UniProtKB/TrEMBL annotation:
A single MF term (Gene Ontology): ubiquinone binding
Domain Coenzyme Q-binding protein COQ10 START as annotated: residue spans: 12-147
Species per Swiss-Prot/TrEMBL record: Aquabacterium olei
Coiled coil location: none
Protein name as catalogued: Ubiquinone-binding protein
Keywords associated with the record: Ubiquinone
UniProt xrefs under InterPro entries: COQ10-like, COQ10_START, START-like_dom_sf
Taxonomic path: Bacteria, Pseudomonadati, Pseudomonadota, Betaproteobacteria, Burkholderiales
Length: 158
């Protein structure tokens, strides 16, 4: 099983970054490998979503059940696709300006946050792994960078 773990400190609030991650329908606008993204069902605690990958001649799709804690985290588990296992977590932790007292109000509106992305995955067969793994490895390792660029596009550079 492969494991990717990335984190970044950003001058965007946890609420802003959470909104970008949960706006699944917008993924094709800024993820070059995402051919199509659809929310299949909305739940009280999240959604079931399907992503279609088209990258380097490889076309695949997978579905995840995402459990969301508003402004704080998104936990993904595999429903179907070319994986035997797929588990992912986004966490958004509020940060205050160094040396400053905690800002009053909702911590999800803090001036900055730490974004962490963790993904564990394995493919359902060796032939699939040989074909898809190089593509998916690249996607997984650049995922958080794509959301940082999206934050700049949506909210402006900070």
């Amino acid at each position: 099983m492969k494991h990717v773990h990335k984190s970044v400190l950003l001058w965007y609030s946890p609420r802003e970054m959470y909104a970008l991650v949960t706006a699944v329908e917008d993924y094709p606008k800024f993820l070059p490998w995402c051919d199509k993204a659809e929310v299949l069902q909305r739940h009280d605690d999240g959604m079931t979503a399907r992503l279609h990958i088209h990258f380097a001649g490889v076309r695949q799709a997978f579905t995840t059940r995402n459990v969301n804690e508003t402004g704080r985290s998104v936990c993904m588990t595999l429903v179907d696709g070319p994986f035997s296992q797929l588990e992912g977590t986004w966490t958004f932790s509020p940060l205050n300006t160094p040396g400053a007292a905690a800002a009053p109000g909702d911590p999800l509106d803090a001036p900055a946050c730490k974004v962490e992305f963790s993904l564990k995955y394995a493919f359902s067969s060796r032939p699939l792994e040989l074909v898809i793994s190089p593509v998916f490895d690249r996607i997984a390792n650049t995922f958080i960078d794509a959301f940082v660029k999206r934050a700049e596009q949506v909210h402006g550079p900070r």
